[in-house]
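Below is a filled-in request sheet from our internal design queue. Each sheet records the structural input a requester submitted and the sequence that came back. We keep these sheets so that new team members can see what a complete request looks like end to end.

REQUESTER: design group, bay 2
PRIORITY: normal
MODE: inverse folding
CHAIN LENGTH: 225
BACKBONE (tokenized):
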């Protein structure tokens, strides 16, 4: 019998596994999470699972219901739009600062990400593109040196995991977002702070538009007779 993951390692492993399950669609809003089942599935102790669930509840990804345990929190489209509006302000700040503060190594990595993103779209490698997208946003935030913004963005991004997954899978979405991401890269690498902020704003404005259009595409429930 192999040893079970415990402590901080088990806690972090379970939390990331649940985030991945949300991104992949294996978990859905309202779904109940049972500690025993999670511990068995992930090879951890119940204590590690319990702590991970509490962490995810603090991030507003899950909600803890008294006497019923944890379940995936449902996020409305309107809440997702409001979260993205807040993200936009912070990401504009980070892009502006990254254009000034990024190191030569960070600028070189941004350029490589741009090349790899183009290739991923050309090859239809959507999982690869999604990973590069995530790394791009992380790197801009890292390069900005804005630690307060980073912490706030981590909190804001938590409830958006499932929405980000669904948007990424929309037909044509990677081709649509690629020029937006390349504009951010070009501005940061070129040291143009105002352009970097504008590019970040344009990208998040488009995300908001996509969220609203996805809500409009859902048929309204039929009226009761």
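RETURNED SEQUENCE:
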């Amino acid at each position: 019998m192999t040893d079970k993951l415990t402590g901080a390692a088990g806690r972090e492993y379970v939390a990331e596994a649940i985030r991945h399950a949300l991104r992949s669609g294996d978990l859905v809003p309202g779904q109940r999470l049972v500690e025993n089942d999670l511990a068995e599935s992930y090879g951890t102790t119940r204590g590690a699972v319990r702590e991970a669930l509490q962490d995810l509840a603090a991030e507003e990804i899950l909600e803890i219901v008294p006497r019923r345990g944890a379940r995936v929190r449902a996020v409305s489209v309107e809440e997702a739009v409001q979260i993205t509006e807040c993200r936009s302000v912070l990401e504009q700040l980070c892009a502006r600062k990254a254009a000034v503060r990024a190191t030569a190594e960070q600028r070189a990595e941004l350029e490589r990400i741009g090349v790899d993103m183009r290739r991923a779209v050309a090859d239809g490698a959507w999982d690869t593109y999604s990973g590069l997208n995530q790394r791009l946003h992380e790197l801009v935030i890292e390069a900005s040196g804005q630690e307060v913004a980073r912490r706030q963005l981590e909190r804001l991004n938590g409830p958006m995991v499932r929405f980000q997954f669904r948007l990424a899978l929309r037909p044509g979405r990677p081709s649509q977002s690629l020029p937006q991401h390349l504009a951010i890269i070009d501005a940061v690498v070129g040291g143009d702070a105002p352009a970097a902020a504008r590019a970040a704003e344009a990208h998040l404005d488009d995300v908001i538009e996509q969220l609203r259009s996805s809500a409009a595409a859902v048929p309204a429930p039929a009226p009761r007779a």
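SHEET NOTES:
- Residues 210 and 216 are 10 Å apart (CA to CA).
- Confidence is low (pLDDT under 50) at residues 218-225.
FILED BY: M.R.
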